[in-house]
Structure formats: structure tokens, C-alpha cells
Amino acid sequence: MLSRRQTILHRLFPSLFSAPLPPPPPVWVPLGALDDFPDGQGQPVVIAGRKIVVFRLGEEVYALHNACPHNRVPLSSGSLTGHTLICRAHAARFDLKTGAVLRGPARKPVRTYAVRQTGHALEIEVR
Ligand code: FES
């Protein structure tokens, strides 16, 4: 276990240390209840200052950054075809589970966030 001072030095001067730092632990933040999210529609939320869109498909919940990587249009206004998210602006398609680009004009994937359900409550992982 590194002290706070050692951790700061490690982050500022990583070449001074032989072993890389372990990744920070996941931080789970309450997202709401499953019923708070309409089935098949994007629900924009702001969690820890991040713009996120949450899609619910039955019992499955997915969270992605709420901006298309092509031209920053909110993906919450996009439409779903199964697990494919279609941007309303220029019809780029993304895999809802991974954020991967399925069809351009977007070239970069959309950031995704892990969501877990404990009882009726949903939590989202933010780092
Ligand atoms: S802004 Fe989404 S495809 Fe162009």
C-alpha cells in the first residue's frame, strides 16, 4: 500500500517506479430504480458531472456517454433497433452493449458505463 505522497509521486513521475499503479477501485453511484427508466427509450442523466444516457430494454440496462462521437449530438434522442443505437443526426449506429461503431459516419466508439442492479436499485460505475 502506497502512501498518498507516494501515489502522487507515482502519478507525476511513473518512470521512477518499477511497478505500475493498480487501477483505482470502481466507484458505484446510485442511478435510481429500474421503473424510473422507460422501456426502449433513452433517458439522459447527469452522474458525477458526466452526461450519460441510460437505455432500458426489459430487465437490461445500458449506460453510455450522451454525445455522439461524430458531432456531439445527444444520443438520448437516438432510436433503438434491438441492441443497436442509431444517432438521429447522421444515422451512425452503435452497439448498445459495447459502444462500438457498427456504421459510420462516426469512427470512434461511444464510452459505456457498467450498470448493476441490487434489488430494485440500479447503480452505475464511474471512475
Ligand atoms: S452526430 Fe451522430 S452521426 Fe453525426
CATH third-level topology: Rieske Iron-sulfur Protein
* First-to-last CA distance: 20 Å
User: CATH class, anyone?
Assistant: Mainly Beta
| Relative strand content | 35-45%
What is the number of E strands?
A: 11
Can you give the helix content as a percent range?
under 10%
Count of DSSP H/I helices: 1
Largest sheet, in brief, is: 4 strands, antiparallel
Instruction: Give the SSE string.
Output: HEEEEEEEEEEE
What would you call the structural class? mainly beta
The set of bound ligands, ions and cofactors reads:
FE2/S2 (inorganic) cluster
Low-pLDDT parts are none
Strand order of the largest sheet: 2-3-4-9
Structure commentary:
With 127 residues, the chain is mainly beta. It has one domain (24-126): Rieske [2Fe-2S] iron-sulphur domain (Rieske Iron-sulfur Protein), CATH 2.102.10.10. The protein is 7% helix and 40% strand. The protein contains one helix and eleven strands. Strands 2-3-4-9 form a four-stranded antiparallel beta sheet, with no helix packed on it. A four-stranded antiparallel beta sheet has the order 5-6-7-8, with no helix packed on it. Strands 1-11-10 form a three-stranded antiparallel beta sheet, with no helix packed on it. A hairpin with a 2-residue loop joins β10 (115-118) and β11 (121-126). FE2/S2 (inorganic) cluster (FES) binds at residues 68, 70-71, 73, 87, 89-90, 92, 105-106.
